[in-house]
């Protein structure tokens, strides 16, 4: 695969201080850097400088999504593929805190992507030196304290078209999908490596454009998710749904809304990986979906409608 | 990477019935097939026909190690690389229950490897149909019940040479290693994908040849390892060491000896993956190792000496 | 306290074989004894002969509830207190498999209770000898495999009157309660020892009489509850709600319906105990209850209506 | 029982600031009060003002041990029993921050006890108001963050005599004991309620007097213990042994030394309780003990010798 992994997500917030407080004190990320409008955050074992760029903005949602290439040559191959496609290429940008030149492009639904090779690996200081040298930094045990960035979920009006975008531009493969009775795709789970997914796309029902459904970090154990639920509860964070287990991907999940309204998940996948090189996508029908989540939980209504930024006048 | 993942391990036993009883009733694998001298076993979410081939023999240890290629073309590339090397190539065999033609070759220390592309994916029946269609078969909850094959550990007189073998023949990368004060490698952890390791090699101290240190399956949660400890205890299985956490790879481990003496591990890696495409191997010195395992447990003496088959007259 | 602990619950089933299969193969109890119409079951660390008496009947629900006294003298004191009260005393019965003479009495809502002192402690055989001699029998690891009986929940038209019954007859203390806006008690949690509760009573909304809401066994860890959810899922058991955490008593819960329709819970209370000898009952208002369970789960409708036996023509 | 539960332990330290930092920042207790020489600490769900009194002193060890009576009358009964005995009674003291008048007495090995009835229940403020009103204060998620005080372990030259002291003065019952081949008791586990033990006494091997072996708080889940191990590791705390499972009492344990050298445990007992009112003490022989801990861990040498205060010139 030319693309190695999801690198970072830029999240927009119109309540910057509150959102930053949530992500650091409650969710348990740490700040690597700051600039005039953004904070660069990472989980304790994320190897790069940052995996979440939090940017003050007039609204919420996703700024851009960064994927790291597997090599300089692989990056070139991907750029060529994108340029040869009918998708919108924005071209090279100089990079950012934490990584070098990045090639930017856009899906047909208004989400901005970038791919890059050169990165700044996180260098811990004395204060966050890990006890075990194979960890990127100290397990600081603050807040929910997930280990690493896991995935994000975007909304698109046409998931089939979004799938073509992901396959063409990133070379992603599809591991699971929802096949609606009307013939459309209801959702699609993509990966560029052995994780079950690094990006999911589900159908936009709120009339929005370029919207974010959620961003997720991975915790080591399901118990970490249960403990996180108590931490969110004690800190007045809106718990939307969970902890419970998704039928799709078997993910043990917990969804909350950070103070500005962006949905954030903390999840655990157990030992599940997609090792099979010719894995056939798992197809979930509407009939399957009527069973609810793995253990029968009915999906909460806001999960189908709430995205960021909100769509004026719709409640979505 | 040309090689997708570790596919299966053939384990030899001179107590076939007892070993099979251990692996099915206590450890929690299931039987996919039998022939005159072997049973083919898998964990409930292993996608292939088998991941453990248990073979009746006059002694214990490892029969052969199978890796699945990422494609037919990738298999050809690997075969060419092996044939171009100075390592011993045995050539093609017809395959076995569960997979197609395999190319066999051997490391300088007597371990037999094979690589293959064509495989038989496990097809569950009515009795082991999973409730969730993205699982390979039903979570049967029998015994320790790990999810999938994880890795194996071999012993070699010269780990540096073994490393050259793995890099040359499988294209494996090294994620962590032990650098001894005498300049030799004490151990090396290899992977062909995003797992931290699928094969480890540590120095042979017992004078044996072609020996196995252990085979490991992955459980979803650390709690599964603790629960497995009680299951082993109640079934009279020899617990050698653990549960505890390895400093190397952060693996939460538990080692037992199956009735014939082969060491078997059940382990959990949490959410740890090697996503970085230019990961630098983590180097552990003898000084590092003196600290014991992650939480200070001193490594038990047999862990340094016991391998299979035993070396006559040495107690190893 | 004169009463030491909840001893056993007799559950009625009109699908005896299916219910027994559920409790042994899936839920993980074992059979200590049988007679013409009943099976006597226990969890692996229950110290008495049985904690669940399963009885073939024309309907479902609870047969009787047994509490063990703290001594022979304490039993006499309780019998005197019951006889001196205005509650219905049935008098002495000879006992049953597993215990000696019992004094029977009845709450005003049709639930039959008994108290006894002489008991038959479970004596394991060779096959279920525990590895650790302080366990009552072997941790068999079959099914959900809870450790011990925990509590039951009854339905009553008048919880305040039921509370008077429990305080008068058993000397129970109230640890938590629901105070409805209309002045009635919505629910009451009782204990005779350091557990948070051994019996709960909630308001009957279905028009039934003498009904059971659920019976619960305790598992050692929350992970056991999550694992049980997968076991129930794979075995086609109806999962009603959970896993989630109750606000009341902090219990981590999972509710299922056994094949005949009786609601059964498996739960974990963590390290929570009521050690305070002058504990003041925690009062939950309707406003409190509107927040849902601890992490926000809305209580499923059937939880308010379903009890056993069903009330003809009501769907309850 | 006249005595309700272990109330508090006074621990001495000759490194007050470092010990206090350990208990608050790393172990996860909070400070309720201070005076000239002591800090009063509690776990987040301890219902009393404090459960650990940390006192600056010239050495380490235990200052005194407080048990709360079940009522004012029960306290009087116990005082009468102690005064009628041949054990040393010091008489009434005025009380302390957190509780009222206490009657003090001493075991033959130099440990000071007190019993009291009047207590100050902890009153949370706005900052530590719990989300769930049945918790004593907010789950703050700082450090290892156990739920409540569990037990302590003292050393005595004659465990049989210590047993007589506990039975006579506190009315404790013995749940488990170690019977040495030489006829002496090697250890004895005592309880006044349904917990498996609130105080253990093991034989003094170091020649000390009035020494402490360890103090323990209870965490809700075994996963909390594993997580605590990482927290101790990252904070440079000396981990002596664990996590592992004791054969005796089935406790899942982890032992560390706080900066001044007092041994501190964090433990989980699962759902295990002693509900049986006529429980027979479990007897462990030397042969039993040779098997090591539950899963085979050999007991580390310092566990047999290290106590506080240290014994000059012995290394104990």
UniProtKB/TrEMBL annotation, chains A, B, C, D:
Signal peptide: none annotated. InterPro entries: Glyas_Bleomycin-R_OHBP_Dase, Glyas_Fos-R_dOase_dom, GlyoxalaseI/FosfomycinResist, VOC_core. Residues 5-118, 148-269 form the VOC domain. It comes from the Bacteria. Coiled coil: none annotated. SUPFAM superfamilies: Glyoxalase/Bleomycin resistance protein/Dihydroxybiphenyl dioxygenase. Pfam families: Glyoxalase. PROSITE patterns: VOC. This is VOC family protein. It comes from Psychromarinibacter sediminicola.
């Amino acid at each position: 695969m030319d693309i190695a992994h999801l690198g970072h997500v830029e999240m927009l917030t119109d309540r910057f201080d509150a959102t930053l407080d949530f992500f650091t004190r409650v969710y348990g990320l740490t700040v690597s850097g700051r600039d005039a409008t953004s904070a660069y955050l990472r989980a304790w074992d994320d190897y790069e400088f940052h995996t979440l760029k939090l940017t003050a903005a007039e609204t919420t949602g996703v700024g851009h999504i960064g994927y790291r290439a597997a090599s300089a040559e692989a990056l070139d191959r991907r750029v060529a593929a994108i340029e040869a496609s009918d998708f919108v290429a924005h071209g090279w940008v100089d990079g950012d805190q934490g990584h070098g030149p990045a090639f930017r492009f856009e899906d047909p639904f208004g989400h901005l992507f970038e791919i890059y090779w050169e990165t700044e690996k996180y260098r811990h200081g004395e204060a966050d030196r890990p006890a075990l040298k194979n960890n990127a930094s100290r397990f600081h045990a603050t807040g929910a304290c997930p280990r690493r960035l896991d995935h994000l979920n975007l909304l698109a009006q046409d998931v089939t078209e979004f799938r073509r975008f992901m396959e063409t531009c990133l070379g992603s493969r599809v591991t699971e999908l929802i096949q609606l009775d009307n013939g459309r795709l209801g959702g699609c789970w993509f990966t560029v490596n052995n994780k079950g997914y690094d990006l999911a796309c589900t159908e936009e029902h709120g009339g929005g454009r370029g919207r974010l459904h959620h961003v997720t970090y991975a915790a080591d154990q399901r118990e970490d998710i249960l403990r996180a639920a108590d931490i969110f509860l004690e800190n007045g964070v809106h718990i939307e749904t969970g902890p419970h287990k998704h039928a799709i991907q078997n993910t043990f999940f917990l969804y909350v809304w950070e103070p500005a309204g962006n949905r954030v998940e903390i999840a655990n996948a157990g030992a599940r990986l997609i090792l099979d090189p010719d894995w056939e996508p798992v197809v979930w029908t509407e009939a399957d979906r009527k069973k609810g989540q793995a253990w029968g939980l009915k999906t909460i209504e806001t999960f189908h409608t709430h995205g960021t930024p909100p769509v004026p006048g719709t409640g979505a």
